[in-house]
Amino acid sequence: MTKEEVRELQQIAQRLRLSIVKSVAAAGSGHPGGSLSIADILATLYFKEMRIDPKNPAWPDRDRFVLSKGHAAPALYAVLAEAGFIDKEELMTLRQLGSRLQGHPSMRHVPGVEISTGSLGQGLSAANGMAIAAKLDNRPTRVYAIIGDGESQEGQIWEASMTSVHYKLDNLMVFLDYNGLQIDGRVHDVKSFRDPGAKWQAFGWHVLEIDGHDIEAIYSACQEAKATKGKPTMVVAHTVKGKGVPFMENIADWHGKAPSKEQAEEAIRYLEASLV
Amino acid sequence: MTDAPRKIATRAAYGKALAKLGELNPDVVVLDSDLSKSTKTDEFAKRFPERFIQMGVAEADMMGTAAGLAASGKIPFASTFAIFASGRAYDQVRQTAGYGKLNVKIGASHGGITVGEDGASHQALEDIALMRAIPGMTVIVPADAVETEQAVFAAARHEGPVYIRTGRSGVPVLFDEDYEFQIGKAATLREGNDVTIIACGVMVSISLEAADILADKGVSARVVNMGTIKPIDVDAIVKAAKETGAIVTAEEHSIIGGLGSAVCEVVGEMYPVPVERVGVRDVFGQSGPAHELMQTYGLTADSIAEAAIKAISRTGT
User: Fold this and answer.
1) Is B267 in the same domain as B139?
2) N or C: which end of chain B has fewer CB within 10 A?
3) Does B178 reside within a domain?
C-alpha cells in the first residue's frame, strides 16, 4: 500500500465521519459514537479490500459486509453513499418517515445492506451463513463483519463464534470495534469480558490486535486473514468512540444522541478542516 | 366400520420429504440443533452430508445462520422443536427471516401437548400465536403425513419465511397421495349444514370422529382442514359461517392467538356467527402419555362435539 493510497483512505474515512455527523444531526437522533469509531475500517474495506460492484449490488460473487452492531447504521449508510450504492443527498433523510435509511439497517430497503441488523448479537451468525454458502458454491466470496464490544455481552456472539471455527470459515473475517464504551458506561464496568483477544483465541480463532484507526494496520490484517487457512480471523481493533470529533471522543454519552445544531457545526468545521 | 387408518408422525413425513427435496433441489440445505434423530432430519444428513449443517445446541445461532444462507440464495430448512424455534429463537426469526423477508423455512417439530412425557418446558402451545404475529410469515400446520410432505415442497417453492409445525406422535393418514396442498387453501373433508369444525394438525382426524358423534345425534357437521393458519383461507371461513351458521375451532395449541383466534378475527369482521374454541385453555401442559394429556386438556372428539352443540345453541334460531 502506497503512502498516497493510505492518505486517500484517510480522507475517505474523514468524509464518512462528516456524513455521519451531518446525517445524525439532521435526524435529531442516532448513534454517532460507535459510527465514528468504525469509519477507518469501513473506508479500508469498501475502497481497498472488498470485491464489490455498487452498480450491481446483487453480484453473486461479491464480498459481503455485515454490520452486526446495527446501530452504527449512519457509518454504513455513509460508506454505501461514498461507494455509490445510494446517493449522498439521501443521507439527510436518515430516520425520517418514508426514508429507506431506517434507524437500523434494513436489507429490504437499502442496496448494499446484506442483512437486517439492529437487535444485537445476531450479525455473526448471518455472516457464518453467508460464508458457508460461499464455500458450498465454491465462490471466491469473502465475508467481513464488525461486531461491537458491548454487543459481545450477547450470548449468540459466542454461539456463532463456535460455528465459524467448527466450519473452518477461513473466508470470514471479523473486526471487534473495541472502543471500550457502551450506553451505561465503560464496558469493563458494565460487564467486563476481560481480555477479548484471549477469549477469541480460546474459541479457536486466528486473532490479531491492531489500532483500528491505522489504515495500514487494517489493510495488512485483511491480508493476514486471507493468508490464514482453516480458521476465521478476529481483529481486535482498538478504537476511540466518537473518533475524529474531539468533544465526542471517549465519552459514553455520545453512544446514542445527536449533536445540537451548534455542536454539529463545530464538528463539521473540524472535520472539514482535515479534508484536502 | 373400516380398518383403523395407518398412523405416521408428521415429523417423520417432514424428514422423508426433506430427503426427497434434497434430491430435486441442490439449493436446499438443512440445519439442525442437535435433534436430528427427533426432527428426522438425519435422513437428509446421511444422504447430503455436505448440505446438512449441524449447529449444536444453539437455536438462536441456527436461525441467524439460516438467514445468512438464505441471503446467499440457499433454501435453508432450520429444524428443531417448536418450542425452541418459536420461543428460544423468536427474536432471530423476527429480526432476520421476518424483517428481512428471507427465504428461511422453519421446520418446527414436537408442536403441542402430544410431546407428552417431556412436559410443559417442551410443549409448545403458543408457537402458532408467536409466528402468526410476524409480518409476512407463512404458518402451516399439516394434518397428516401426506399434507406434511406437500407442505415441505410448497414451502420450498414459496418465496419468503415459512413456519411448518409438525408433531411427535403418529396421526392417521387422511389424504390420498394425489391430494394437492396449497398455501392458504383449506380443504373440506366432510360436508355438513349445521355447524363447521375448523381444525388443524392432529385435531383434524379427531374432528372427523366428532362429526361421527354429532351425526349420531342428528347434527350435520362440516369438517374443514385449515392446513395454513397464515395466510388463512378467509373464503372458506366466511362460506362456513354463511352456510352452517356456527363454527367450532380445534387445535393442539392455546386458545389464545392460534387457529381459534385467527378464525374469530375473520368471523368477527366478515360474518359474525357463534364460534367455540377447543384448545388448551391458557395453562401450561405437564408430563404424561400423549393420549392421556389430550383427554386431560379436553382435546377430544367429545369436547369438539359438545362445543358444536353449544355453538349451534347460541345461534338463537
Assistant:
1) no
2) N
3) no
pLDDT digits (tens, 9 = 90+) for B26-56: 999 999 999 999 999 999 999 999 999 999 9
Same domain, B165 and B198: no
CB atoms within 10 A of CB B193: 12
Parent domain of A64: 3-273
Rg of chain A over Cα atoms, rounded to whole angstroms, equals 17
Read off the pLDDT of residues A207-264 as tens digits, 9 standing for 90 and up. Answer: 999 999 999 999 999 999 999 999 999 999 999 999 999 999 999 999 999 999 999 9
B4, pLDDT greater than 80: no
> For residue B145, which of B22, B2, B290, B14 has the smallest C-alpha distance?
B14
Domains of chain B: total: 2
Question: Which regions in chain A score pLDDT beneath 50?
Answer: none
Chain A residues with CB-CB distance to B101 below 8 A: 108
Nearest neighbour of A126 by CB, restricted to B58, B67, B74: B67
Asked if A163 and B66 come within 8 Å (Cβ–Cβ), the reply is no
Q: Domain residues for B77?
A: 7-172
How many domains are contained in chain A?
1
Residues B20, B139 within the same domain:
yes
ipTM beyond cut 0.90: yes
For residues B58 and B168, membership in a common domain is answered with yes
**Are residue B166 and residue B216 in the same domain, yes or no?**
no
B167 and B199 belong to one structural domain = no
Q: What is the CATH number of the domain that holds A54?
A: 3.40.50.970
In a domain, B181, yes or no: no
Q: CATH no. for residue B263?
A: 3.40.50.920
Cβ contacts below 8 Å, chain A against chain B, sum to: 108
Query: Cα separation of A172 and A144, whole Å?
Result: 6
CATH of residue B38's domain is: 3.40.50.970
- Residue A130 one-letter amino acid: M
Q: What does the pLDDT read at residue A94?
A: 98
Task: Kindly state whether residues B20 and B161 are assigned to the same domain.
Answer: yes
Pair (B163, B291) in one structural domain: no
Chain B contact probe: residue of A59, A68, A141, A163 with most B CBs at under 10 A: A163
Any domain includes B180: no
Q: Cβ separation of B60 and A156 shorter than 8 Å?
A: yes
**Catalytic residue set of B:** 59
Cβ contact B61–A156 (<8 Å): yes
Classify residue B125: in a domain, yes or no.
Answer: yes
User: Which residue is it, cell 428443531?
Assistant: B80
The predicted model gives B180-190 an average pLDDT of 98
B197-210: average pLDDT: 98
**Which residues on chain B place their C-beta less than 8 Å from a C-beta of chain A?**
29, 50-51, 53, 55-56, 58, 60-74, 76, 91-92, 94-96, 99-101
Chain B positions touching A134 (Cβ under 8 A) are 72
